[in-house]
Amino acid sequence: xxxxxxxxxxxxxxxxxxxxxxxxxxxxxxxxxxxxxxxxxxxxxxxxxxxxxxxxxxxxxxxxxxxxxxxxxxxxxxxxxxxxxxxxxxxxxxxxxxxxxxxxxxxxxxxxxxxxxxxxxxxxxxxxxxxxxxxxxxxxxxxxxxxxxxx
Length: 151
Description:
Elements: H1 3-19, H2 31-34, H3 42-52, H4 62-71, H5 77-89, H6 95-107, H7 112-124, H8 133-136, H9 141-147
Helix pairs in contact: 1-6, 3-4, 5-6, 5-7
């Protein structure tokens, strides 16, 4: 089994365990309702992002999926690790995200320069930890990225 598959399997196996400890606020937007937002809003782009991958919401991970869109990351193992690197740099990383990133750092030494770039990108952006993700859903994605200095 290659390293990407090992990390992907660890992510898949960790979600049910992590859900035992996660208690996020109820997500106010049913998946189908995201399609009703105007084009170029975070909500509509989140709908497009998930729909294009034949995905829906993963319970308790709606904010995480929103970060994928806001920050411009895909869903591969490398893209997930890039997201975690950004969050580390932005000081907005969860315990699970930190563990995943450290594991990715160890398993993929050839990607260190890529991860460093994302850490710097996270440090350069406005801290996202105190901004309710749900409040961003109806807003224009380009404007959010500009306002939060997400390059």
